């Protein structure tokens, strides 16, 4: 078994990052890498991955409920209608990451999400970049940070008006929503999405 896997008190193998605290362990066990296809749920993940850029995921995860409250549960229809007053409200909210560019990008991306409805919608668009195969990493160093597909997705989203959607951020999104499976071989979650064989 990979030295990058840790056996928990429950006997299950997880990567080190998912074994450091209960919040990350629960996220890893029940959510990370499971298929997400709904527009609102995907919009949330897209926005949170953007906010995570340059920060640790645990910082974002700890603030997720605050983000949901601040951004109307990431309903793109509502967020697209945010005004300058809403922007100022968000910038003064200590419960979220108060980065002016990321907040502006989230409001912008809500409108871009609505625009995508004319051609199949956000879910169909993002999932169309699913690769033919997925990595099979046994160590952290074997996990890519981007891929041909994540670069293509980033470029395609930018052409549709999205911001904070670089190839590394989009690969993280693809991992989080099950488009690729980068669970380490030997982890109890490997293959659990039902999309990729264990």
Automatic annotation (TrEMBL):
PANTHER family documented for this protein: DNA-3-METHYLADENINE GLYCOSYLASE 1, DNA-3-METHYLADENINE GLYCOSYLASE I
Species annotation: Glutamicibacter ardleyensis
What InterPro entries does the record tag this protein with? Adenine_glyco, DNA-3mA_glycosylase, DNA_glycosylase
Q: What is this protein called?
A: 3-methyladenine DNA glycosylase
Identify the domain of life: Bacteria
**A Pfam family name for this chain?**
Adenine_glyco
């Amino acid at each position: 078994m990979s030295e990058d896997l840790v056996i928990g008190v429950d006997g299950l193998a997880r990567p080190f990052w998912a074994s450091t605290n209960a919040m990350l362990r629960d996220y890893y066990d029940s959510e990370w890498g499971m298929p997400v296809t709904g527009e609102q749920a995907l919009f949330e993940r897209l926005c949170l991955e953007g906010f995570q850029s340059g920060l640790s995921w645990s910082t974002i995860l700890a603030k997720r409920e605050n983000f949901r409250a601040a951004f109307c549960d990431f309903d793109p229809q509502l967020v697209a209608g945010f005004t300058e007053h809403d922007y100022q409200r968000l910038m003064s909210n200590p419960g979220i990451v108060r980065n002016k560019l990321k907040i502006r990008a989230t409001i912008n991306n809500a409108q871009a999400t609505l625009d995508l409805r004319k051609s199949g919608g956000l879910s169909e668009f993002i999932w169309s970049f699913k690769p033919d195969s997925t990595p099979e990493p046994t160590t952290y160093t074997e996990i890519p940070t981007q891929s041909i597909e994540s670069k293509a997705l980033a470029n395609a989203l930018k052409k549709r008006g999205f911001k904070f959607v670089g190839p590394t951020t989009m690969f993280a999104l693809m991992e989080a929503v099950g488009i690729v499976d980068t669970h380490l071989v030997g982890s109890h979650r490997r293959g659990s999405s039902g999309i990729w064989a264990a």
